User: Fold these one by one.
Assistant:
Number 1:
Amino acid sequence: MTESDLLLSAIVYESIVIIIALIILALILKKYLEKRHQFTLILFVIFTFYLLTLIFSCASKIISFSRAYDYVNDVEAVDPLTIESFIVLRIVDYRSSFVFMALASAFTYVLRVKLFEESYKPLEKWFVIMFGGFTIIYQVFVYIKGNDFIEILSFILIAIYVFAINIPFMSQCRKNYKAVDNPTFKKGFLSLTLMSFFVSQILIFQLLDRFAKIFLVEVYPYGFSPFYYIGMLCALMGYFGAYFGYIRPRSSN
C-alpha cells in the first residue's frame, strides 16, 4: 500500500473511533445533567480532552493526506515560520494531541484526589502543575522541523506525565476494588482501573508503532503497523470501560 492509502485507511479508522467516542461522551454528559454527580463531570472533562486528542490526531493525517502544504509533505522543506505553519506543524507532529493528553491526565489527578484523598498533597500537586505546565509549554513552543531529538524528548515528557498520574490512579482503584464488597462500587473501581490501563497503553502502542517503522522499515515504511490500530482501540476501550462500568451504574443509583 502507498502512503496515501495508509493515511486514508487511518483517517477512516480514527473517524469511526471518534464518532463512537463522541456518542459515549454525549451519554456521559446526559448522565451528568440528570444526576449532577461531581465525579461524572470530572470524567466528562477528562474524556473531552481525550476526544480532542483523537480529533487532532486524525487532523494530522488529513493534513498529510491532502498534500496542501509543501513544508509538511516535503521532508527537506524548511519551516516558513509563519503563524499558519506554527499551527499546522504542531498538529501534524502530534504536539496538539499531546497537549490535550496532558490536560486529560491533570484532571485524572483531580479525580483521584476527589475519590481517594482528603486534600491535595503539596508535592504531588506541584508536580502536576509545574511538570504539566512545562510539558505543555514544550509541546507548543520547543519545536524544530525534522529534529528527531526534540521530537523524542517531546514524547518522553508526555509519557512521564501520563504514567506518573495514571499508574498511581490505577493502583488505588485496583486496591479499592479488592477492598469493597458492594457490587456497584466494585464494578466502578474495576472500570476506572481498566480506563487508566487502556489510556496508558495508547502511548505504549504508539511507541511500538514507531519502533516498527524504524526497525521494520521494509514492512512498515510509513508506520501504521498493527500496534497503531491497537493503540486507537485502547482509546475506545477506555471510553467503554468508564461509561459502562462506572458512569452508567453510578448515575442510575
Number 2:
Amino acid sequence: MAAIEVYIYCGYMSVTHRLKKTLRNIIIILFLPLTLVGQNNDVNVETLNKITGITREVAEINLTEKEFNEGIAEGPIIYKSIFRKNGCWTAYYLYENQDDNPPLRIKYSQTAKKGYDEFEFYYKDGKMIFAKLTEFKSRGRNKGSETKRLFYYKDKELIYTTESEKEKYSEYIKRTEKSVRKMIYE
C-alpha cells in the first residue's frame, strides 16, 4: 500500500511541476516585450506591438534556420596605421535561394580596436527589421566586458533601440550592414 501512495504522490508532484513550468512560460511570453522596453516613456502601445512582432519574426528565423542554406564569407582587415594590428572579418548568412540579397539573416564579426564586435542582421521582405550589436572588450580597463545593443526597424526606419546614443550607433549599424552585404555578394 505504501508503494502505491508514493507513486501517486510522485505523479502529483510531476503534474504540479508541469503546471508551474507552463505558468512561468506564459508569464515570460506576456511580459517579454515590457522588459525590452523597460521604463522608457517614449514607447507607445503601437511601437510595443511592432517590437513584439519583430521579436517573433527573429525567433522564427532562428527556430527554422535548419530548413535554409547557410553561406560563409571571410577576409582580412588591413589598417593603414602602423599602430593598429590588422584583423579579420567573418560573415555567416542564412538564405532561402542562392541569389537572395539580402538573405534572411547575417551574423558578422570583426576585430575592433580593443576587442571584437559581433553583429546580427535580420531581414523580412528584403528590408532589415532587427540588428544586434555585441561588443566584446579583450584589452583595456573593461577587459572581459560585453555590451549588447538592440535596434528595431520598420520600413527602413529605426523605431526603437536600447542604446542611448541612438544617432551614433544607428549610423554605425547602417554603414556596417551595407558594407557586409557588399562584401558577401561581390
Number 3:
Amino acid sequence: MILADNFIASKETEKAQLALDTCLDINKNYWLGRNNRANLRIKSGDYLGAVEDLSVALNKRPEDTDMLLARGVAYKKSQQLYAAKQDFEKIIKMKPEKEAELRETLKATDVEIKRLENIVEPTKVKMKTSPVSKQSFVAAADASNKLGNSTDTKQFVKKGLELDRNNPELIAIQVDNLLKEKNLVKAKQVLKDAASRNVKKETIARYNKNVAAFIKKMDAEEE
C-alpha cells in the first residue's frame, strides 16, 4: 500500500493501479485500497470498476459520505441513474448540511430520469396491445439501460433482436447490461457470437463507452 501511495503521489497512475491490484489480490476487502483504486478508475474512465471497488469499501464503512458521493458519481457516469439518485439521497439523509451542495446534481439526475422514463413507459404500454418497431425497442432499451433497470433492458433487447439480431446498438446495450450485472463471461460470449455473424466488435464499441473499455481490455488480455 505504501508503494501505491508513492506512485499516486508521483502521478504514476498505471504503476499505482498495478500496486493496488497486487495489494487487493491479497486482501480483497481492504477498504482503503479499494477506495484508492476506485479514484484511479474514475480518473481513467473505468466507472463500472469504480462502482465495484466503492461498493466493497462501503460494506466496511457504510457511513462514509465521501465514498458514497464518489460511488454516486460513478453510477451516474456509468449510466445507472436510479442507483446514483439513491446514493445522493442517502448522503443528504445522513448529512442534511450536504443538501445545498448536492441540490443541482440531484435535480439534474431527476430531470434525466424523468426524460428516460418517458421513453420507456409508452413502449411498455404499447407492447401489450400493438406491434412495436425496432427503432422503438432500441430507444426503450437504451433508456432503461441508462436508468439501470436491468429487467426492462433485457426485455427490450430481446424483442429488438428478434426483429434484427445483428443490430450493433442493441448488442452494445445487451453487453453493457451484462457488465453492470458483473456477468463478464456472458458479455464475452455475446461479443463472440456477434463476431461469428460478422458484427464487428469495433462497430459495437461505438455505441457505448463501458463496452468500448471492456473490448479494449479484452483485446489486451488476448495479446
Number 4:
Amino acid sequence: MKKILIIIVLILVVGGLWYVMGRGDSATPENATENGSVVSGVVIGVDMEGVAVDGPALVMIETEEGDVKTIAIPSMGILLCEASRIDDVFAVKAGDRVRVQGDITPDGYILPCEEEEHYFEVSAI
C-alpha cells in the first residue's frame, strides 16, 4: 500500500512539472507573423561545428533590444529549403547585419526554411 502511494505521488509531481515546463512553449513571440518570427540584428558569433556532421550552422545575433537570438541554417537538405532567400552562411562574419524570418524550433532557434516567405539575408555594415 505504501509503495502505491509513493508511486502516485511521484506521478503527480512529474506530471505537474511536465505541465508547468511545457506551458512556455505555447507563447507567441511579439514579433511573430503568420509565417514565423521576424528578427534583425548584428552577428556576434557563428558556430559551424554542426555542419561537419550534417547539423545546422548556428548564427548568433544581438537585436536592437539587446536580446541574443540564434538562427539555425540547415546544412543537410539546404537545397530542399522552401525559403525564398537564404544567403551564404559560410560568408557570414561578426559585425554583419542580419534579417531573418522563420519558425521557432523547440530549442528556441529561428529556422528560416519551412515556408516560401521565410528568408535569411545578410548585409555587411
